[in-house]
Every structure is written in structure tokens, then in C-alpha cells.
Design goal:
Radius of gyration: 23 Å
Number of strands: 23
Structural class: alpha+beta
Helix content: 25-40%
Bound molecules: iron/sulfur cluster
Shape: globular
Largest sheet: 7 strands, antiparallel
Length: 492
């Protein structure tokens, strides 16, 4: 899972596309914390800056002024293909025989090995070991008139999950795979009227009356639009390219029929609660999931409390539907990363103990219903239950506002081995015993759909029910280090 952002500004607009893109990316930090980067175009050439680390440390104010241009894309990474090394940070950049191109990618391809076989020169030509680097090389090589035509030729051969922002010298293209596994939205940025005649003169063209005062934005989530002051226009549709160029309205080009399968995990857990997807505010969706959970999996308790922060909306809904008071019993240190997206097991373990502390006055002597949005490996939940018991809780009933995760994801969440998933190899009673809870209950798929008020067919539920919308080749048990195993060398 990653965050992508793109912006096209009118010519000469201040503070420049890099600053807008950095701001937009800040609202997507939860989508990836391993690396961050920006690529800009000044109309003639691309410039790139990227590094390992959090967005605020990579894209600080000292660096942004040197990234001059009206077009920019930005990316924050959570690795699903390739190691956490500098070369694998994004955006990717490639100066090919046909064009210069930079890409930010959210998702994971499932036919990476096939695509590698289509690259002239093979793995030796790749400076990094991500599926995105491979896609960038294929697009830069493609003998087509421009980037849009290159995308139309290459994308039909690409399978898996990809929401892309693609930058060349003169345009940004937003792309969503035919299933639309990962979100991508389009927004309009209305800028203040031009302050100087030269800026006013820069705008005339197909942007009509707003010629000098509008920009266009692409973002993984609507929060990226909010933070830069852009208004939501619409989602980029599955199977669609949206082409953004200065002086033009966005242009839509369809490259495949839509077969929607938005990752339901985005709505349950991953995206921010203030984002909107499928026309729904995600806080409200999660609150309703909590209400459904209270109906399906009631628990006798004195208090309902969330695992902060992501369990809070569902806990509020559970409390509302059950009539049990809602209290916060765990305080989260906001300056540590999200447990789920730390790249190694060692860091995951440290993450939990560093980031949660119980409120003993709230917890002591109480029967608790603790609401969270997922159990992946089970280790986090086990530590939370232990924390609460040590703080004096008399009973701990764990309720999960999602179904058990039985199957790995190949479309952009790094749970690629069934052995990593506690529900894949243990019964519910075994999980309860492992985490040390008095009882355990999950929301059903039917309960998720009731909360969403949308049909099953619009979503991917594969990690819950094993129905994969895009077939996954055997070797795409698509190992994360597939390209490194195929000979692509990166620094370790
Ligand atoms: Fe989302 Fe699960 Fe489908 Fe992956 S398998 S895209 S996590 S619903």
C-alpha cells in the first residue's frame, strides 16, 4: 500500500507544484512510511528527489524550492515488492530512448515475471527491484507517439493492482487498473486570482474563464484534496486514464472495461476515516460496522473501548448499538508508526509496546469489550490484551469489525504468506486462546455489506473469502523479492 499524489498548476502559479504535492502527500502518510519522493517537470525536463524515511524528513522546506515546475507527482511507500532500500523509493524515473517518465504506483502487479520477460535486456537493465521500476522501463521504451499512447499499448499486458500517477515533461496521467483495487480521485484546485499581469497572461486557453486560476489534482484519498484546498470532482474509474495538461480540461481515455473490485480493506481499516470512498464517509462506514458487530457479536461488559486510533469509529458504533458506555482505555503515542506497516517482525513487536499505554483508572476492575478493525498475525492483539489485564481489567472481550483474514493479499498489502495469517492456520477458539481474551467475535461479510449498503460485486473480499478478482499465478505467491531473486541487484 502506498500513497500517490499529482498536481498540474497553471503556468507560473505559486507556490509551485512541488510544494502542493508535498502538502498533499502529508495527508497520505498513513499509507506508507518507508520512503517518500517527488518528481517535477518544468515543461522541458524532469527532476526527482526521493529518500528513505517519513515525508516530513524527506520533503522538507529546504529541498522543495529547488524542485521548480508546474507539474509534480509525489509518492510515499510501503513495500510490497522489493526491499526497503533507496533505489526502490518512488517516484521511479527513467530517461528512455523515447521519453522521460516518472511514476508513483499504489498497488502490486501479479505478472511481474512475465513482464520482466518482455523487457529488452532483461533484469540487468533495472536499477531497482520493484514492479514499478519494471513498468517504468517498459513505458519509457515503448515506441509510441507519447506517454498516453505508450500506456495504451503497455497496460493491456499488465495485470494486478495499480493506481498510478505518471509524469512526463508536459502532462500527468492518472491510471486505475480495470478492477480499481486501489483508490484514486480527481480534484480541482481553484487558485487565487493572478497577482501580476505576467501570471494573468500565462493562462488563456481551454481552461476558459478560470484559465489562470485552476489546477488539477490526483490523490489516493480525498484527504489529499482537502489539505490542498481542492474540490472533489470524481473518482478515476477502473480501466480509465485521466490526462492532465496545462490549459486543458482533464481528458478521459478508457483502456479497458471496468470490472470493479475496490479493496474493501481500504474502507474497513487502511484509508483515513475522514476520506470518502464509493460516496461514503469512512468514519460513518466504520461506525455502522461497529453497530452491525454489536448485533452479531454481543458481549456483556462495563465499557466499550477502541484500539486507537483506527478502531475508534467501530467502537463508537458498538457502544451506540449495545448501550454500553464508550471510554478510551488505551493512549496511543502518536509519534510512532502504524504497527501493521512496519516492514519487519522485530519492528512490529517494538511498535506495539512503544505506542500503546493503558489508562489504569479506566481499566482497573472493569469488564472490557475492546474493538479493533483486524487481526492479521495476532501478536499485536495478544500484547494489547496482556497490557489491559496487567492494568487490572477483569475481563477482556475482543471484537473485530471485519471478518477473519484467511487468505493472503497479492494486490498491495504485504500479507503474502498464509502462514503469516493467524486465522488461516488456527480456529477461532485457538485464536482466542492465543491472544488471551475471554471471548472473540468477528463481523461477517454480510455485516460489512450491511454497513456499506453496497453490493458484494463492487469490492474485493479475497483475503476474507478467497475469491480473487484477478487470477494470481502460482509464483506470484508473487514473492516480495521476486525481482531480486531474478537477478536485479540493489544495495542491501
Ligand atoms: Fe484488499 Fe484483501 Fe482484496 Fe487485498 S485481498 S485487495 S487486502 S480485500
Amino acid at each position: 500500500m502506498c500513497g500517490v499524489f499529482g498536481v498540474v498548476l497553471p503556468a507560473g502559479a505559486e507556490p509551485g507544484a512541488a510544494a502542493v504535492a508535498a502538502l498533499g502527500l502529508f495527508s497520505l502518510q498513513h499509507r506508507g512510511q518507508e520512503s517518500a519522493g517527488i518528481a517535477v517537470s518544468d515543461g522541458e525536463q524532469l527532476m526527482l528527489y526521493k529518500d528513505l524515511g517519513m515525508i516530513s524528513s524527506v520533503l522538507d522546506e529546504r529541498r522543495l524550492p529547488s524542485l521548480r515546475g508546474d507539474l509534480a507527482i509525489a509518492h510515499c511507500r510501503y513495500s510490497t515488492t522489493g526491499s526497503t532500500v533507496w533505489e526502490n523509493a518512488q517516484p521511479t524515473f527513467r530517461l528512455g530512448p523515447r521519453r522521460a517518465i516518472a511514476i508513483g504506483h499504489n498497488g502490486n502487479l501479479v505478472n511481474t515475471r512475465d513482464l520482466l520477460g518482455q523487457l529488452h535486456g532483461g533484469s540487468a537493465r533495472l536499477p531497482a527491484s520493484t514492479d514499478t521500476e519494471l513498468l517504468t522501463a517498459l513505458l519509457a521504451d515503448e515506441p509510441a507517439a507519447d506517454t498516453v499512447e505508450a500506456l495504451l499499448r503497455v497496460l493491456p499486458r499488465v495485470r494486478g493492482a495499480y493506481s498510478l500517477v505518471v509524469l512526463d515533461e508536459r502532462r500527468i496521467v492518472g491510471v486505475r487498473d480495470p478492477h480499481g483495487f486501489r483508490p484514486l480521485v480527481l480534484g480541482r484546485l481553484r487558485l487565487p486570482p493572478p497577482a501580476t499581469p505576467s501570471r494573468a497572461a500565462a493562462g488563456p486557453g481551454l481552461w476558459g474563464d478560470d484559465a489562470a486560476t485552476s489546477g488539477w489534482v490526483l490523490s489516493s484519498e480525498t484527504t489529499g484534496l482537502d489539505i490542498v484546498g481542492a474540490e472533489y470532482v470524481r473518482d478515476v474509474e477502473p480501466g480509465e486514464l485521466v490526462v492532465l495538461e496545462q490549459g486543458r480540461e482533464p481528458r478521459s481515455v478508457r483502456f479497458a472495461p471496468a470490472s470493479p473490485a475496490l479493496c474493501v480493506f481500504e474502507l474497513i481499516y487502511f484509508a483515513r476515516p475522514d476520506s470518502y470512498m464509493e460516496g461514503r464517509n469512512l468514519y460513518e462506514v466504520r461506525r455502522r460496522m461497529g453497530m452491525e458487530l454489536a448485533r452479531e457479536q454481543p458481549a456483556e461488559a462495563d465499557l466499550v473501548m477502541p484500539v486507537p486510533d483506527t478502531g475508534a469509529p467501530a467502537a463508537a458504533g458498538f457502544a451506540e448499538a449495545s448501550g454500553i458506555p464508550y471510554r478510551e482505555g488505551l493512549v496511543r503515542n502518536r509519534y510512532t508508526g502504524r504497527t501493521f506497516i512496519q516492514p519487519s517482525q522485530t519492528m512490529r513487536h517494538r511498535g506495539v509496546t512503544l505506542k500503546l499505554n493503558p489508562l489504569r483508572e479506566v481499566v482497573r476492575g472493569r469488564r472490557l469489550t475492546v474493538v479493533d478493525d483486524s487481526i492479521v498475525r495476532g501478536t499485536t492483539t495478544k500484547q494489547i490484551v496482556e497490557l489491559l489485564r496487567r492494568a487490572g481489567a477483569t475481563e477482556v472481550h475482543v471484537r473485530i469489525s471485519a471478518p477473519p483474514i484467511y487468505h493472503p493479499c497479492f494486490y498491495g498489502i504485504d500479507t503474502q504468506l498464509e502462514t503469516e495469517l493467524i486465522a488461516a492456520t488456527n480456529s477461532e477458539e485457538e485464536i482466542r486462546a492465543f491472544i488471551g481474551a475471554d471471548s472473540l467475535g468477528y463481523l461477517s461479510i454480510g455485516g460489512v455489506l450491511a454497513a456499506l449498503e453496497l453490493p458484494y460485486e463492487r469490492f474485493c473480499f479475497a483475503c476474507f473469502d478467497g475469491v480473487y478478482p484477478e487470477a494470481v499465478p502460482y509464483d506470484a505467491a508473487s514473492r516480495k523479492l521476486l525481482l531480486e531473486e531474478a537477478g536485479v541487484a540493489v544495495r542491501g
